[in-house]
Amino acid sequence: MPPKLNRERALFVLGKIDEILAWEQRKESERDTKFVELGRYLCEVRAGQYWRLEKLKSFDEFLERRFPESRRKAYYLMSIHENLPLQARRQLKEIGWAKGLELAKVARKEGQKFNCATWLHKAKEMPKDRFRREVERELTGEDTEPWEIVYFKLYKSQIPVIDRALETAALMLGSNRSRGYCLEMICADFLAGANLDNGDPETLLFSMTRFFRFLPESHKQVFLENLSEKAS
Q1: Domain residues of the chain, as ranges?
Q2: DSSP label at 96?
Q3: What single DSSP character describes residue 175?
Q4: Of 50, 62, 78, 84, which sits with the fewest C-beta atoms within 10 Å of its C-beta?
Protein backbone atom coordinates (compact mmCIF):
# COMPACT_ATOMS: atom_id res chain seq x y z
CA MET A 1 0.00 0.00 0.00
CA PRO A 2 1.35 3.47 -0.81
CA PRO A 3 1.89 5.79 2.17
CA LYS A 4 -0.75 8.39 2.99
CA LEU A 5 0.09 11.48 0.96
CA ASN A 6 0.92 14.47 3.17
CA ARG A 7 0.01 17.23 0.73
CA GLU A 8 1.37 20.13 2.79
CA ARG A 9 4.72 18.45 3.44
CA ALA A 10 4.96 17.27 -0.16
CA LEU A 11 4.46 20.80 -1.48
CA PHE A 12 7.15 22.10 0.86
CA VAL A 13 9.72 19.43 -0.09
CA LEU A 14 9.05 19.64 -3.82
CA GLY A 15 9.42 23.40 -3.62
CA LYS A 16 12.71 23.05 -1.74
CA ILE A 17 14.12 20.75 -4.42
CA ASP A 18 13.19 23.17 -7.20
CA GLU A 19 14.62 26.05 -5.17
CA ILE A 20 17.96 24.29 -4.69
CA LEU A 21 18.18 23.22 -8.33
CA ALA A 22 17.47 26.79 -9.48
CA TRP A 23 20.02 28.11 -7.01
CA GLU A 24 22.57 25.61 -8.33
CA GLN A 25 22.10 26.84 -11.86
CA ARG A 26 22.61 30.46 -10.78
CA LYS A 27 25.66 29.85 -8.65
CA GLU A 28 27.52 26.90 -10.13
CA SER A 29 30.73 27.78 -8.31
CA GLU A 30 29.03 27.35 -4.92
CA ARG A 31 26.89 24.32 -5.70
CA ASP A 32 28.52 21.96 -3.21
CA THR A 33 27.22 23.88 -0.18
CA LYS A 34 23.65 22.64 -0.80
CA PHE A 35 24.19 19.02 -1.85
CA VAL A 36 23.64 17.48 1.60
CA GLU A 37 20.25 19.15 1.93
CA LEU A 38 19.25 18.16 -1.60
CA GLY A 39 20.12 14.49 -1.01
CA ARG A 40 18.03 14.47 2.17
CA TYR A 41 14.99 15.93 0.44
CA LEU A 42 15.28 13.52 -2.49
CA CYS A 43 15.27 10.57 -0.10
CA GLU A 44 12.13 11.95 1.54
CA VAL A 45 10.41 12.36 -1.83
CA ARG A 46 11.09 8.70 -2.61
CA ALA A 47 9.99 7.44 0.82
CA GLY A 48 6.82 9.55 0.93
CA GLN A 49 6.04 9.18 -2.77
CA TYR A 50 5.64 12.96 -3.05
CA TRP A 51 5.93 12.64 -6.81
CA ARG A 52 2.26 11.58 -6.79
CA LEU A 53 1.36 15.21 -6.11
CA GLU A 54 2.49 16.03 -9.66
CA LYS A 55 0.54 13.05 -11.04
CA LEU A 56 3.70 11.22 -12.03
CA LYS A 57 3.91 7.44 -12.29
CA SER A 58 7.17 6.83 -10.43
CA PHE A 59 10.13 8.33 -8.60
CA ASP A 60 12.26 7.75 -11.70
CA GLU A 61 9.88 9.91 -13.73
CA PHE A 62 10.22 12.61 -11.08
CA LEU A 63 14.02 12.45 -11.40
CA GLU A 64 13.83 12.58 -15.18
CA ARG A 65 12.10 15.95 -14.91
CA ARG A 66 14.45 17.44 -12.31
CA PHE A 67 17.65 15.90 -13.67
CA PRO A 68 17.10 15.69 -17.45
CA GLU A 69 20.80 15.28 -18.26
CA SER A 70 21.52 12.46 -15.82
CA ARG A 71 19.68 10.88 -12.90
CA ARG A 72 22.98 9.47 -11.68
CA LYS A 73 23.82 12.62 -9.75
CA ALA A 74 20.53 12.43 -7.85
CA TYR A 75 21.23 8.86 -6.78
CA TYR A 76 24.77 9.87 -5.79
CA LEU A 77 23.41 12.57 -3.48
CA MET A 78 20.88 10.16 -2.00
CA SER A 79 23.60 7.57 -1.42
CA ILE A 80 25.61 10.12 0.53
CA HIS A 81 22.64 10.92 2.74
CA GLU A 82 21.72 7.27 3.29
CA ASN A 83 25.18 5.89 4.04
CA LEU A 84 27.09 8.58 5.91
CA PRO A 85 26.51 9.24 9.60
CA LEU A 86 25.20 12.64 10.68
CA GLN A 87 28.62 13.67 11.98
CA ALA A 88 30.10 13.25 8.51
CA ARG A 89 27.21 14.90 6.66
CA ARG A 90 27.60 18.04 8.74
CA GLN A 91 31.14 18.50 7.44
CA LEU A 92 30.65 17.41 3.86
CA LYS A 93 29.93 20.94 2.65
CA GLU A 94 33.62 21.66 3.20
CA ILE A 95 34.85 18.92 0.88
CA GLY A 96 32.23 18.75 -1.88
CA TRP A 97 29.79 16.11 -3.05
CA ALA A 98 32.31 14.23 -5.23
CA LYS A 99 34.45 13.32 -2.23
CA GLY A 100 31.28 12.76 -0.24
CA LEU A 101 30.29 10.04 -2.67
CA GLU A 102 33.64 8.31 -2.16
CA LEU A 103 33.17 8.53 1.61
CA ALA A 104 29.73 6.96 1.25
CA LYS A 105 31.27 3.94 -0.52
CA VAL A 106 33.60 3.32 2.41
CA ALA A 107 30.84 3.89 4.97
CA ARG A 108 28.53 1.44 3.17
CA LYS A 109 31.23 -1.23 3.19
CA GLU A 110 32.42 -0.78 6.79
CA GLY A 111 29.06 -0.09 8.45
CA GLN A 112 29.45 0.47 12.19
CA LYS A 113 33.23 0.14 11.88
CA PHE A 114 33.45 3.25 9.67
CA ASN A 115 36.10 5.60 11.09
CA CYS A 116 34.39 8.87 10.28
CA ALA A 117 37.03 11.25 11.68
CA THR A 118 39.94 9.58 9.89
CA TRP A 119 38.24 9.51 6.51
CA LEU A 120 37.01 13.08 6.80
CA HIS A 121 40.57 14.18 7.53
CA LYS A 122 41.82 12.33 4.44
CA ALA A 123 39.10 13.90 2.32
CA LYS A 124 40.05 17.40 3.47
CA GLU A 125 43.80 16.94 3.04
CA MET A 126 44.05 14.92 -0.18
CA PRO A 127 43.46 16.14 -3.75
CA LYS A 128 40.37 14.61 -5.36
CA ASP A 129 42.18 12.04 -7.55
CA ARG A 130 44.45 10.87 -4.75
CA PHE A 131 41.52 10.51 -2.37
CA ARG A 132 39.62 8.50 -4.98
CA ARG A 133 42.56 6.09 -5.27
CA GLU A 134 42.74 5.84 -1.48
CA VAL A 135 39.08 4.80 -1.39
CA GLU A 136 39.63 2.32 -4.23
CA ARG A 137 42.51 0.74 -2.33
CA GLU A 138 40.34 0.47 0.79
CA LEU A 139 37.51 -1.19 -1.13
CA THR A 140 39.55 -3.59 -3.25
CA GLY A 141 42.76 -4.04 -1.26
CA GLU A 142 44.75 -3.15 -4.38
CA ASP A 143 46.58 -0.09 -5.60
CA THR A 144 45.04 1.33 -8.75
CA GLU A 145 46.38 3.64 -11.41
CA PRO A 146 44.88 7.14 -11.67
CA TRP A 147 41.52 7.21 -13.44
CA GLU A 148 38.73 9.55 -14.37
CA ILE A 149 35.15 9.36 -15.62
CA VAL A 150 34.74 10.48 -19.23
CA TYR A 151 31.44 11.85 -20.51
CA PHE A 152 30.36 12.20 -24.13
CA LYS A 153 27.04 12.24 -25.95
CA LEU A 154 25.70 9.27 -27.90
CA TYR A 155 22.66 9.19 -30.13
CA LYS A 156 20.14 6.50 -29.21
CA SER A 157 20.65 4.88 -32.61
CA GLN A 158 24.36 4.41 -31.77
CA ILE A 159 23.86 2.69 -28.42
CA PRO A 160 22.91 -0.84 -29.65
CA VAL A 161 26.06 -1.33 -31.75
CA ILE A 162 28.27 0.08 -28.99
CA ASP A 163 26.66 -2.17 -26.36
CA ARG A 164 27.08 -5.20 -28.61
CA ALA A 165 30.75 -4.37 -29.18
CA LEU A 166 31.34 -4.01 -25.44
CA GLU A 167 29.53 -7.29 -24.72
CA THR A 168 31.64 -9.09 -27.34
CA ALA A 169 34.82 -7.66 -25.84
CA ALA A 170 33.66 -8.78 -22.39
CA LEU A 171 33.24 -12.34 -23.66
CA MET A 172 36.80 -12.28 -24.98
CA LEU A 173 38.36 -10.63 -21.92
CA GLY A 174 36.24 -12.23 -19.22
CA SER A 175 33.13 -10.97 -17.49
CA ASN A 176 35.20 -9.60 -14.59
CA ARG A 177 36.65 -6.89 -16.84
CA SER A 178 35.12 -3.42 -16.65
CA ARG A 179 33.52 -1.70 -19.62
CA GLY A 180 36.50 0.65 -19.60
CA TYR A 181 38.89 -2.24 -20.26
CA CYS A 182 36.57 -3.53 -22.97
CA LEU A 183 36.49 -0.14 -24.67
CA GLU A 184 40.29 0.05 -24.51
CA MET A 185 40.60 -3.32 -26.26
CA ILE A 186 38.21 -2.21 -29.02
CA CYS A 187 40.21 0.99 -29.56
CA ALA A 188 43.53 -0.87 -29.48
CA ASP A 189 42.20 -3.33 -32.09
CA PHE A 190 41.16 -0.42 -34.31
CA LEU A 191 44.56 1.27 -33.99
CA ALA A 192 46.41 -1.97 -34.73
CA GLY A 193 44.33 -2.68 -37.83
CA ALA A 194 44.67 0.88 -39.08
CA ASN A 195 48.46 0.70 -38.87
CA LEU A 196 49.19 -2.79 -40.20
CA ASP A 197 50.03 -1.72 -43.74
CA ASN A 198 52.32 1.26 -44.15
CA GLY A 199 51.02 2.79 -40.96
CA ASP A 200 52.75 4.25 -37.95
CA PRO A 201 54.91 1.46 -36.42
CA GLU A 202 54.97 3.20 -33.05
CA THR A 203 51.15 3.25 -32.92
CA LEU A 204 51.07 -0.43 -33.91
CA LEU A 205 53.55 -1.28 -31.17
CA PHE A 206 51.54 0.70 -28.65
CA SER A 207 48.35 -1.14 -29.59
CA MET A 208 49.97 -4.57 -29.45
CA THR A 209 51.44 -3.75 -26.06
CA ARG A 210 47.99 -2.89 -24.71
CA PHE A 211 46.61 -6.14 -26.15
CA PHE A 212 49.37 -8.08 -24.39
CA ARG A 213 48.21 -6.72 -21.02
CA PHE A 214 44.83 -8.41 -21.42
CA LEU A 215 46.25 -11.92 -21.86
CA PRO A 216 46.21 -14.37 -18.93
CA GLU A 217 49.66 -15.07 -17.49
CA SER A 218 49.84 -18.51 -19.13
CA HIS A 219 49.06 -17.05 -22.55
CA LYS A 220 51.59 -14.27 -22.05
CA GLN A 221 54.28 -16.89 -21.51
CA VAL A 222 53.27 -18.79 -24.66
CA PHE A 223 53.30 -15.54 -26.64
CA LEU A 224 56.80 -14.66 -25.43
CA GLU A 225 58.09 -18.17 -26.17
CA ASN A 226 56.75 -17.95 -29.74
CA LEU A 227 58.50 -14.62 -30.19
CA SER A 228 61.78 -16.09 -28.93
CA GLU A 229 61.53 -19.03 -31.34
CA LYS A 230 60.89 -16.77 -34.33
CA ALA A 231 63.69 -14.42 -33.32
CA SER A 232 66.18 -17.30 -33.16
Answers
A1: 7-140, 159-223
A2: -
A3: T
A4: 78
